[in-house]
Design a protein that fits this description.
Layout: E1 14-19, H1 23-34, E2 40-46, E3 61-62, H2 65-69, E4 76-79, H3 84-96, E5 100-103, H4 106-111, H5 113-123, E6 127-128, H6 139-145, E7 152-158, H7 161-172, H8 177-186, H9 194-198, H10 201-215, E8 225-226, H11 234-242, E9 245-255, E10 261-271, E11 283-290, E12 294-301, H12 305-319, H13 328-332, E13 343-350, E14 363-370, E15 373-381, H14 382-387, E16 396-405, H15 409-421
Helix pairs in contact: 1-12, 7-8
Length: about 425
């Protein structure tokens, strides 16, 4: 038997310039310092406030981006700052200079996706951002690699850990919304600006990124139909509990029969048997459906410093082996178009019946009214929700029903109208 020759070659230490020393930045720095096996070294850290006292060597810090970007010894940039506009400039400059970039800034990626993937293609320099979507869940790499040849038909999941934590506390502990939000902020699960989470902006940013990798559909987040959980109230939770259901903020995208793509982020009633019903607190969960493999279910922590830092470090490690996104679904497939031309079944509640625009519905299945609370369940064209604002006004909340996309709405509408004309209903 021939002896196995051990490889003596050792790759050089990865020289990193880090932008941002907040919650995630500190976690990334700490793990790199305590894990020599990563063979990575942070040479300089870009910060906004040089006067702020920090617990590590002050010589590592700089308030001048050029000191990092123009340093020929730094080959990898890790961007972890809050300001999406500044982050975009840093990432763009780094890619032009041939420096690989890792970021977790979903707002920046979502706002500039088209420019950034074209810039990567032009420069040949990789930009990785696994931590931007579902923190500890390696979903982007799976969408890029595993589903390269197996065409996806649907993705659906909980992709914002902060809102899932809040809803868990409201439903499991009967906490009011404001108290549940405060807990999320105290534990570091909510964004600095809570509105990014609770109004659905964060989840919309993430879904727009996932659409590109899952379906090759490149859009701006504002093109999506989306809302958060800030309008939900106790009566909605009671209604769900009575039906033995949960309310989750769900991001969903699926191919329609006409070949176009329906996509939205909205609160949704979840049956007990649904995999998403067991996703609690800051966890994320995502279900993919494809032609050959049917369903896959991904679960992992979706908020917090360490889960996001773990995703960032995974990207840093992948760069050592020359990994980059190939964007095959964007580059080689016929472009799939986003459409709001589909029907969706929703539950709308309000503190006054006059706030519910009943005539906007194709048909209404159920209506109820009690003192200080009224609600309807019915089917509405998604385009009407995207255009109208009545369901976004104070005192009104909207939750999609289980399996919300309703393909046979036209048939039901015609059938009901026929019965009405015949005097049967």
């Amino acid at each position: 038997m021939l002896p196995i020759k051990k490889e003596s070659f050792q790759k050089p230490v990865q020289s990193i310039g880090l932008f941002g020393y907040g919650t995630v930045g500190k976690a990334v720095y700490g793990i790199i310092q305590n894990t020599p096996g990563l063979q990575a070294s942070i040479e300089k850290i870009g910060i906004k406030d040089p006067g702020k006292k920090r617990n590590i060597n002050e010589g590592l810090f700089t308030a001048h981006a050029g000191e990092i970007l123009n340093n020929p010894c730094i080959h990898t940039i890790v961007e972890l700052i809050d300001d999406a506009d500044v982050a975009y400039q840093i990432v763009k400059d780094a890619l032009w200079q041939g420096k690989a970039v890792v970021t977790a800034n979903k707002k920046m990626i979502a706002a500039h996706f088209d420019e950034l993937w074209r810039l990567q293609k032009h420069t040949g320099t990789p930009l990785l951002y696994e931590g931007a979507c579902c923190a500890s869940i390696p979903i982007i790499r799976n969408l890029e690699e595993y589903y390269d040849t197996d065409a996806l038909s649907k993705i659906r999941g909980i992709i914002n850990g902060s809102t899932n934590f809040i809803l868990s506390r409201m439903q499991d502990d009967a906490l009011p919304f404001t108290e549940a939000l405060l807990q999320a902020q105290q534990l570091g699960f909510a964004e600095t600006n809570a509105l990014l989470d609770i109004d659905g902006h964060d989840a919309a940013n993430k879904l727009s990124i996932l659409l590109a990798h899952a379906f090759g559909c490149v859009i701006k987040p504002e093109s999506l139909l989306y809302a958060g959980i800030s309008k939900l109230h106790g009566d909605d939770v009671k209604y769900a509990n009575q039906r033995k259901q949960k309310i989750k903020l769900v991001a969903q995208a699926q191919k329609l029969k006409n070949g176009k793509l329906a996509a939205f982020v909205l609160p949704q009633f979840i049956e007990a048997a649904d995999e998403l019903a067991d996703i609690h607190n800051e966890f994320n969960g995502l279900i993919t459906e494809s032609h050959y493999t049917d369903k896959h279910f991904f679960k992992g922590k979706g908020a917090g410093a360490l889960p996001t830092a773990a995703a960032v470090l995974s990207d840093i490690a992948a760069l050592r082996y020359g990994y980059k996104y190939e964007y095959k679904k964007i580059s080689t497939q016929n472009s799939i178009q986003l459409s709001n031309d589909y029907y969706i079944k929703v539950y709308v509640s309000a503190d006054a019946f006059s706030k519910i625009k009943s005539h906007a519905f194709e048909y209404i299945d159920e209506s109820q009214s009690q003192y200080g609370y009224c609600a309807v369940t019915g089917v509405i064209l998604a385009q009407k929700l995207w255009e109208d604002t009545w369901w976004r006004q104070p005192g009104v909340s909207l939750v999609t029903c289980t399996d919300p996309i309703t393909p046979d709405a036209d048939y039901k509408k015609i059938s009901r109208r026929s019965l009405e004309l015949a005097g049967i209903t």
